[in-house]
Design brief:
Helix 2 packs across helix 3, helix 5 packs across helix 6 and helix 9 runs parallel beside helix 10. The relative contact order is 0.09. The longest helix is centred in the middle third of the chain and has 17 residues. It contains 13 helices and five strands. The model has no long low-confidence stretch (mean pLDDT 86). It folds into three domains: 47 residues, no CATH class; 46 residues; 174 residues, Ribonuclease H-like superfamily/Ribonuclease H (Nucleotidyltransferase, domain 5, 2-Layer Sandwich). The radius of gyration is 30 Å and the shape is elongated.
């Protein structure tokens, strides 16, 4: 590949060579005209005589002989271990008796994707997708989160002092965070509800659809996992009343609903566990501001550093 500041691109090399070979220019005159050295002009003219236009492109800088290159059987061993065990370069290097940098070069040479781009269960490359417009697909899921007792949990009191709160009957209980997240824009709507029954999930969908409609987004399809509440007639009837087409992920394939799963991880890192809270009310009080920041101001790496609101046309408040 030509350097961006190279005096001769393949087109320029061809012009120089034609001036010398076809038009009979002296090499020195052609070199002065194209502002290159005499030897450079001679090289491109010679390649043109030998190979024609095809000779004007860059050649590989790889040497003809590579006596120190890793043996083919070692490369095959590295590739086989990567395929069977899905391990990184350090562990590959330890098993094969080579340097980690050598293992990395082998993986790059064989065009093998990084582990982060592979499905953990099957080892197949993850197929990433994105719907073309807001509302075309909305992901729905529930995150179960332990409530904080008055006075604080283990982050405030320490694990020993907070151990009585783990009592299933007399503890603080759980919050069920229901989230609807738009596939195209990543715009999110979340509610803290007391359970995840079919009636609760259906009511949440009605309010989520109304919220998206207020933002100018019409929900066309909704994708959920195969949890009990999403397979009942209550959920199907609610979808039909709202004019929404329900979809379900394949069993044991949470990656299909990965966008809302990733949102819940962000929610935990940046809100739920971001600082010690002394009560569940204190944590819930800051949630609306966090969600507003996520939708309107937080750059999202999955959409090129844009904010979710910027991907919804004329969404009110996106510039505030």
């Amino acid at each position: 590949m030509s350097h961006r500041n190279a005096p001769l691109t393949p087109t320029g090399r061809l012009r120089l060579a034609r001036c010398v070979v076809d038009d009979g220019w002296p090499l020195r005159r052609a070199a002065e005209r194209f502002r290159v050295s005499h030897t450079t002009a001679a090289r491109w003219a010679g390649r043109y005589r030998q190979l024609g236009e095809a000779g004007m492109h860059d050649r590989s800088s790889r040497p003809l002989r590579q006596p120190l290159r890793t043996p083919a059987e070692v490369e095959e061993h590295v590739v086989r271990l990567r395929s069977e065990h899905r391990i990184g370069t350090l562990r590959l290097a330890a098993r094969c008796g080579i340097a980690a940098s050598t293992a990395h070069r082998i993986l790059v040479r064989r065009h093998l994707p990084v582990l982060a781009a592979l499905d953990r269960a099957t080892g197949e490359p993850i197929r990433r997708y994105e719907r073309a417009r807001p509302g075309e697909l909305v992901h729905v899921d529930v995150k179960k989160l332990g409530r904080i007792p008055d006075g604080g949990g283990h982050k405030v009191l320490g694990r020993a002092a907070s151990s009585p709160n783990k009592d299933r009957r007399n503890g603080a209980g759980y919050a069920y965070l229901h989230t609807a997240l738009d596939d195209h824009s990543r715009l999110a709507y979340t509610e803290d509800l007391p359970d995840e029954t079919a009636a609760t999930c259906a009511g949440f969908l009605q309010r989520a659809a109304a919220w998206f409609a207020a933002q100018g987004v019409t929900v066309e399809r909704v994708l959920t996992d195969n949890a009990w509440a999403y397979t009942k007639n209550t959920w199907r009837d609610t979808c039909r009343e709202l004019g929404i087409s329900p979809r379900w992920t394949r069993p044991w394939r949470p990656q299909t609903n990965g966008k809302v799963e990733r949102f819940h991880r962000t929610l935990l890192d940046e809100w739920a566990y971001q600082q010690p809270y002394t009560s569940d009310r204190e944590r819930q009080a800051v949630f609306p501001d966090w969600l507003d920041w996520y939708n309107y101001h937080r750059p999202h790496t999955g959409i090129g550093g844009q904010t979710p609101a910027s991907r919804v046309t004329n969404l009110p408040g996106q510039h505030t």
